[in-house]
Write a structure and sequence with these properties.
It is a single chain. It is built from 14 helices and ten strands. With 339 residues, it is an alpha/beta fold. β6, α6 and β7 form a beta-alpha-beta unit. α2 packs across α10. The longest helix is centred in the first third of the chain and has 29 residues.
Length: 339
C-alpha cells in the first residue's frame, strides 16, 4: 500500500464538494426554463346567443362559477339580437358555437349551412302572448298588429297556432317583425304593436307593468325543443376537445341550476345577466323549475326537434322530414357526459 501524501485527502474532499455544488447549479439551470414556462394557453371560443334571456342560465352559471375556466376554455360571448343573424355568423365562421332556436337551425342546415346540433338547451317554449292594457281577449286583436321575431321566426308559428285555436284567421291581424324578445317588448311598450310574443323574464316584467296575459305557448305546444347548442362543424372537426370542454361546463351549469339549494344564487345570477329585479328573476326561476325548461345534463330532446320539423312541413317549407342524423351529432355530448 502507498501512503497518501500530506494534503492529498483534503484536496479530494474539496474536489468532491465542488463537484456537488456544480451538479446542483446545473440542475437549477436546467429547471429555469420550466419555472418560467406558463401553463398551456386556454382555448378561446366565440359563443353567441340571440338575446339575454333565462334560456341561457347554464351559460351564465358556467361563466360566474368559472366552469369554463376550469375546463381550460375562455368563452367570448356575444348577443346577436336575432336568431337568423346569429346563425349567419355561425355559418360564416365568426362564431364557433351558439345557442340557437331549433326551427332556425333546421332551416339553416336544410339550406346547406355547415352547422350541427350537439346538445340540448331549452326543452320547452315558455313564451306567452302579452297584450296592451286595452286588449282583454283574443277577439280584441282583430285588426291589430302583433310583434313576432320575423317572417321565418318560431314566434310567428306560435302566433299562428294560438290565434287559430282562438278563432282568428291569419288575415285577422297584421304582423310586425321585431327580432328578439327585448325588441318585441319595446314595440309593445311603445304602442307600435298591440301584442307581442315574449319569453322570460321579460314577460314577467311586462305583466308587472300591467300588460295583459293572453296565454302561454306550452298550453298549445307542450312537446317542443325551443333551442339547442349548435356548432360550426368545420371548426368543431379540428377543435373537438374545446367543444367537449364547453359542453362539460354547460352540463355543470345545468346541475347547479337544478340543485334547489342554489335557488337564491341562481336568482341573483339571472337578475344580473338579464337586468331584471330579483322578484321577476325569482318568478322566472320558479316557472323554469315547474316546467323543466332547461335540458338536464344538456340532453337532446329529439321528439321536440321532430316537432319543429313537423311545423316546417305544416308551414309548407318542406314536404317530408329528413333523417335526424342530418341535423344532429351526438358524439360530442356523449364524450362530455363520460368525463
Amino acid at each position: 500500500m502507498f501512503a497518501a501524501r500530506p494534503g492529498q485527502s483534503g484536496d479530494r474532499m474539496k474536489i468532491a464538494r465542488e463537484g456537488r455544488v456544480l451538479c446542483v447549479l446545473a440542475l437549477l439551470f436546467m429547471m429555469l426554463p420550466l419555472a418560467g414556462r406558463s401553463p398551456a394557453a386556454a382555448k378561446e371560443i366565440a359563443f353567441g346567443i340571440t338575446s339575454s334571456t333565462a334560456f341561457s342560465l347554464p351559460h351564465y352559471i358556467a361563466t360566474e362559477k368559472k366552469y369554463y375556466e376550469n375546463e381550460g376554455v375562455v368563452v367570448d360571448a356575444i348577443v346577436a339580437g336575432a336568431a337568423v343573424g346569429l346563425l349567419k355568423q355561425l355559418a360564416g365562421g365568426s362564431l364557433n358555437l351558439a345557442q340557437a332556436a331549433t326551427d332556425q337551425t333546421l332551416r339553416a342546415i336544410l339550406h346547406g349551412a355547415p352547422i350541427k346540433i350537439v346538445a340540448g338547451a331549452a326543452s320547452n317554449a315558455p313564451f306567452r302572448l302579452v297584450a296592451a292594457k286595452t286588449i282583454k281577449s283574443w277577439g280584441d286583436l282583430k285588426g291589430k298588429t302583433v310583434s313576432v321575431g320575423g317572417l321565418t321566426d318560431v314566434t310567428l308559428y306560435f302566433m299562428r297556432v294560438m290565434a287559430r285555436k282562438n278563432g282568428l284567421s291569419d288575415q285577422d291581424y297584421d304582423l310586425l317583425y321585431g327580432g328578439g324578445t327585448p325588441s318585441r317588448f319595446a314595440q309593445l311598450a311603445s304602442g307600435a304593436a298591440a301584442a307581442a310574443l315574449l319569453t322570460n323574464p321579460v314577460d314577467f316584467a311586462a305583466l308587472e307593468q300591467g300588460f295583459v296575459d293572453l296565454g302561454s305557448v306550452p298550453q298549445y305546444l307542450p312537446h317542443w325543443a325551443q333551442n339547442n347548442i349548435v356548432v360550426d362543424s368545420r371548426w368543431a372537426s379540428s377543435n373537438r376537445a374545446a367543444v367537449v370542454s364547453f359542453l362539460r361546463a354547460h352540463i355543470r351549469g345545468t346541475r347547479y341550476l337544478y340543485d334547489s339549494a342554489n335557488r337564491e344564487d341562481v336568482v341573483g345570477i339571472l337578475a344580473r345577466h338579464t337586468r331584471v329585479t330579483p322578484q321577476i328573476a325569482a318568478a322566472t326561476y320558479d316557472l323554469y323549475m315547474r316546467q323543466q325548461v332547461i335540458a338536464r345534463e344538456a340532453a337532446l330532446f329529439t321528439g321536440g326537434i321532430k316537432a319543429n320539423l313537423d311545423a316546417l312541413v305544416e308551414m309548407g317549407e318542406i314536404t317530408e322530414i329528413p333523417p335526424l342524423a342530418r341535423f344532429i351529432d351526438t358524439s360530442f355530448l356523449a364524450e362530455a357526459s363520460r368525463q
